[in-house]
Amino acid sequence: MRHLVPLAALALALAPLAVVHPVRVLGHSMEPTLRPDEVKWVLRAWASHAPRRGEVWMVAGPQGPSVKRVTGLPGELVTWEGPDVRVGGQRLAEPWVVHPERSGHGALFCGEGYLVLGDNRPESQDGRSWGALPPSAMRGRIL
Questions:
Q1: Residue 40 belongs to what H/E stretch?
Q2: Using one digit for the tens of pLDDT, what is the confidence trace for 45-67?
Q3: Do 38 and 26 touch, CB atoms closer than 8 A?
Q4: Measured between alpha carbons, how far apart are the two ends of the chain, in Å?
């Protein structure tokens, strides 16, 4: 029985990692909100509410894990032209975007997925080229 005490203590110490875990920010796509090599805590998706517009989430993107901001929600039409992003025709207020995209335009119907964008738009590979991500790609909310 004594040999089980250290195992129980280890399991108890590691249990919080089942709900939250650290993640290191890679790249410049979320600057200035998040800086490269910054470590943040992620609340796993199963323990969080559904993604909300404006929240920062870790996602499973086409090139692997990435940290992006939720911009479009299921069922929405999102359009962008230069620095303006619109949802259902209404311009989004995005105070976190310090480095907007000055060129480019497009439109995306989110369907059942989410459109995620980086805050540093000129440096971000994101939903403008990936398309909407399915709910299963939303790995966890950045705390």
A1: strand 39-44
A2: 999 999 999 999 999 999 999 99
A3: no
A4: 39
Give the list of residues 6+ apart from residue 11 with CB closer than 8 angstroms, or none. Answer: none
Residue 111: both structure tokens together: 């369907």
Q: Please give the model's pTM, rounded to 2 decimal places.
A: 0.86
State the CB neighbour count (10 A cutoff) for residue 90. 8
Fill in the DSSP letter of residue 119. Answer: S
pLDDT in tens, 64-122: 999 999 999 999 999 999 899 999 999 999 999 998 888 889 999 999 999 999 999 99
Pairwise CA distance, residues 84 & 94, whole Å: 9
Rounded to the nearest 5°, which phi and psi values hold at 56? Answer: -100, 125
